[in-house]
Amino acid sequence: MSKTDFGPSIKSRPVYGVLTPRPGSSHLIVADGEGGAAVEALFAQAPEMKAKAHLIYIPGANGTDMSTAMAALGAGQYNRAPTYASVRSRIVKVLGDGHMGLQVYATGTESLMGQVQRDAMEAGLPHDAVQTEHRGSLARRVQCVHCKGITENVTTDPFVCSHCGLNLFVRDHYSRRLAAFQGVNIDAEDPGEVPPAEERFK
Amino acid sequence: MSVGAAKIPVVVTEVVEVNSLIKRFRFVREDGGQMPGFSGGAHTVVEMDDAGTRRLNPYSLMSDPGDRSGYEISVRRDDTGRGGSAYMHREVRPGMKMLISPPVNLFGLDLRAKKHLMIAGGIGITPFLAQMAQLDAMGARFELHYAARDRELGAYMPELSARYGDRVHRYYDAEGQAIDLTTLLAGQPLGTHLYVCGPKGMIGWVLKTAADLGWPAGAVHSEEFLAPPVGVPFTVELAASGKTITVGAAQSLLEAIEAAGVDAPYLCRGGACGQCETHVIACEGEIEHNDHWLTDDQKAGCRHIMPCVSRFKGAKLVLER
């Protein structure tokens, strides 16, 4: 069970677990922000997995940066990256060259875990083969269902689509294929009648 | 009552002796129409009238899913079984009319896979014959590893090699050949799905080896139809229909319920699909759970039974049926 309490929701909303070492030929571990602490906990449980581990760490959009600690963990291969987008091609390459038995772990924000899961699925792994553990920010990656543009690090509801400018209500309705929650125009019937934005995803 | 559409009246058009243990049967519709479409891995339940005893046995469809002019199955004769396969071998001839169920697939391909790795033991080859035809037509990537006792009993092996070339790997127990499973599984590209069908021991070996090597459960698929085991006769109360019935030694509980004129749901009749799950109201004794469906907790709880394969030993069993 996840250590973060997200409250009751619809079935579509992803749920997360706690990273557990699994037998495998190699381990791909991707973390952002506070997710670094979950990697430390994972390695503490099974230090022998470090040699076969490829750790990729992305400092959090909220400023949390555990790179120094991550570099010192002793993973067989370590990469630091500024954003998921910048390191995605590396992750896709590792998955594309990988063999069955490769274990995939993702920890940190929902945006990061969702994108790792999406890329693992595109590589042919079942979605539930990716282990996840939520840590840190609740900021969401949201797709505008109208213009299809994706806005990262959404913390308020409603928010303004960074692509088309519509006022969007953030749903718990989630797409694994897009790795994004769905944002729906909140003032379509009465343009301008927008409730005040609340910080729901700190 | 099976779930879904009515039974299909068919005529047997071909009976072919494939080897000393296996016969192949082809069914076409009595009305000359097309068979329902199916996907590789599907089975049909064949209804037999064996001198007054009604038998319903599931068999994997082995013909090309693209061919809707008929269905083909292969039946391995089991001389120690309850008699369904012996009946198929002894009594079924071209021209005979039979009833079969619409197809049901409990062993479908996961078409999101980048590659399909299939492991067959003996008669477990049958669902793969249909699956390979389907994958080949799609241009999908697959590989078959097929083990049989010896060359004579390796049904369809030469045909498969001729059709699919080096995608087919054959192993003969009698010649000391065995699948090097650990090497095979460790070398598969990410995104491979694994399918296994064969004897119980082989399925267990493949599932355990895959799990030990870190294969995710969602990428591993297996199918084993259980024949209902023979056992000691026992008595059951059916609470909803107000009947008390006796299950014979060579009869399954489901068959006894049906013989008493009580409609009970079923699909696979082999302990795999979960359709016939029945609530237990009272149980003074021990349920012999023979299915693959209930969890260990459910089996320990004595609140559920799968009448297609499970039996009972004890003083009293009351079912909500």
Please describe what this structure looks like.
The complex is a heterodimer of chains A (202) and B (321). With 202 residues, chain A is α/β, with parallel strands linked by helices. Chain A is built from 4 helices and 12 strands, in the order βαβαβαβαββββββββ. The longest helix of chain A has 14 residues. The relative contact order of chain A is 0.16. The mean pLDDT of chain A is 96. Chain B is 19% helix and 34% strand. Chain B contains 7 helices and 17 strands. The longest helix of chain B has 13 residues. Chain B: Pfam families: DmmA-like_N, Fer2. Chain B: Keywords: 2Fe-2S, Flavoprotein, FMN, Iron, Iron-sulfur, Metal-binding, Oxidoreductase. Chain B: It comes from Gemmobacter caeni.
In the CATH hierarchy, the architecture of the largest domain in chain B is 3-Layer(aba) Sandwich
Given helix and strand content, the structural type of chain B is: alpha/beta
Number of strands of chain B: 17
Low-confidence stretches of chain A: none
Mean of the pLDDT scores of chain B?
Answer: 94
CATH class of the largest domain in chain B: Alpha Beta
The succession of helices and strands of chain A, N to C, reads: EHEHEHEHEEEEEEEE
Helix/strand structural class of chain A: alpha/beta
Largest sheet of chain B: 7 strands, antiparallel
InterPro entries (chain B): 2Fe-2S_ferredoxin-like_sf (IPR036010), 2Fe-2S_ferredoxin-type (IPR001041), 2Fe2S_fd_BS (IPR006058), Beta-grasp_dom_sf (IPR012675), DmmA-like_N (IPR054582), FAD-bd_FR_type (IPR017927), FNR_nucleotide-bd (IPR039261), MRET (IPR050415)
Pfam families (chain B): DmmA-like_N (PF22290), Fer2 (PF00111)
Keywords (chain B): 2Fe-2S, Flavoprotein, FMN, Iron, Iron-sulfur, Metal-binding, Oxidoreductase
GO molecular function (chain B): 2 iron, 2 sulfur cluster binding; metal ion binding; oxidoreductase activity
